[in-house]
Amino acid sequence: MQNKAKGRRKFMAKMGLGTLALGLGNAGAYAFAPKNKITKNNSINIGFITDIHHGYCSDALDRLDVFIKEASSRKLDFIVQGGDFCYATEEAQECMDLWNTYKGEKYHVLGNHDMDKVTKKEAMDFFGMEKNYYSFDKGDFHFVVMDGNYIMKNGKYEDYGNANFYIEQQNRSLVNPEQIEWLKQDLEKTDKQTIIISHQAFDEIWDGWSSPSRFAVRKVIDDANNRTDYQKVIACFCGHHHVDDHSFINNVHYFQMNSASYFYVGEGYGSDGSRAMYEDSIFAFLSLDPSGQISIEGKQSQFVQPTPMEKGHPDAPRLSASISDRNVEFKQRG
Q1: pLDDT one-digit tens code per residue, 28-62
Q2: Domain definitions of the chain by residue range
């Protein structure tokens, strides 16, 4: 997200990937080997953090440390970070090393700023990723991780790489056709209820920076749900936008997960340059209950002063330095 010309929001970062990569599910998920078998009808518990922006935010490592320590104190099935984690450079090794201190399963989503200084392939190699999009099963649920980091250039889809995505919005944050087709087939292969995780949003976010591919992705979701006698895709989670929001489209929940660090407000509005920093590290713990409930336990904080409201930022009333606690229902499989 973010546009150099307009000085959008978010800058830098890269996602980490656990050292031990293991192929699970239809296209290979990347995580440590499962420690516990999940029996049917047990809830799946997840730690979720996104947009740490190591290399751009000076305290990114401290914010990650808070998450890792709390995640390690809980009984979770896995943790996931939603992109914009750290640069795939030597300087980022400290971030990767900290991420890898978590002893359980770890999953990763590619973010746009993960390719600010490197190619997508170089970023994937740094994180140990075999695939840029993939799926895996956990308990009664199926998880799909997508890659919305493509640009349209001369009529062709190209990978993000070396900050080539600072172009007009309609030609970036795209999902390539091969991935759309893969998603169709992946959903056809599973009979489990499914959660999709991406960096960019597939719903209609108020700031106008949703993925231009959202309509194609939502058509695949709707088609999959209409082909079965139960709700196959129940929810989508994303980062990227640094907001705390939720929408409900065609019986599918779409969750905007806030950044761990800040909201990009532009020069003249931030507490730290162009960033409106959060006082605390922001992340969430998710619980997926097969009986039909998604619970989000979010972290609440506040903006470092001077706040966007104090600075007179036009979107200040919409901004949040928290992830809201939420309890929503989905149509369970009969």
Answers
A1: 333 333 333 334 459 999 999 999 999 999 999 99
A2: 44-329
Q: In the CATH scheme, what is the code of domain 44-329?
A: 3.60.21.10
Question: In the block, which residue shows the tokens 């010309």?
Answer: 5
The model's pTM is 0.86
**What one-letter code names the amino acid at 217?**
V
When mean pLDDT is compared across 16-30, 101-115, 156-170, 247-261, the lowest value belongs to 16-30
